[in-house]
């Protein structure tokens, strides 16, 4: 019986060390994330700008791995606003900006991630 105590103590110490390592890894994963800065979509139009008609553009981005709370691999997620704005400008030939801009975001969850789509609409100007 006296010989088993050191073995039990070592097992407990190994388990305690493993638990500490897992807790540190969990805290690091919890506080690590992706971030981006603010984005200006539409420049201020001049008084002499000419209205060309309505325009609309859509772009999507995906964030992968697991349920929504645990997603951590972004794919084209941060650039979707700029891409939607550029798609709206490309819809009307000769347009340089949009005025009266609205944004609509849709998202859907699929088994290994979430896809978020942004639709930018406005009036194209030159």
Number of helices: 2
Strand sequence of the main sheet, in spatial order?
2-1-4-3
Alpha-beta classification: alpha+beta
- Strand content range: 25-35%
Q: Averaged pLDDT, please? A: 82
Q: Which stretches of 5+ consecutive residues score pLDDT under 50?
A: none
Radius of gyration: 26 Å
What overall geometry do the principal axes of the alpha carbons give? elongated
Bin the helical content: 25-40%
Major sheet details = 4 strands, antiparallel
- Multimeric state of these chains? single chain
The rounded distance between the terminal residues' Cα atoms is 89 Å
Number of DSSP strands? 4
- Helix/strand order, N-terminal first: HEEHEE
Explain how this protein is built.
By secondary structure, this protein is an alpha+beta fold. 31% of the residues lie in helices and 35% in strands. The chain has helices spanning 4-30, 80-91, and strands at residues 51-64, 73-75, 97-110, 113-125. It has a 4-stranded antiparallel beta sheet. The longest helix has 27 residues, at 4-30. The chain is elongated. 12% of the residues are buried.
């Amino acid at each position: 019986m006296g010989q088993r105590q050191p073995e039990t103590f070592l097992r407990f110490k190994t388990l305690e060390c493993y638990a500490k390592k897992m807790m540190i890894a969990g805290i690091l994963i919890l506080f690590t994330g992706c971030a981006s800065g603010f984005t200006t979509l539409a420049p201020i139009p001049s008084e002499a700008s000419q209205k060309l008609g309505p325009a609309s553009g859509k772009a999507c981005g995906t964030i992968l791995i697991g349920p929504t709370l645990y997603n951590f691999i972004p794919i084209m997620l941060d650039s979707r606003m700029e891409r939607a704005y550029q798609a709206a400008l490309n819809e009307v030939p000769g347009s340089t900006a949009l005025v009266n801009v609205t944004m609509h975001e849709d998202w859907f969850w699929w088994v290994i991630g979430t896809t978020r789509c942004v639709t930018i609409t406005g009036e194209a100007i030159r």
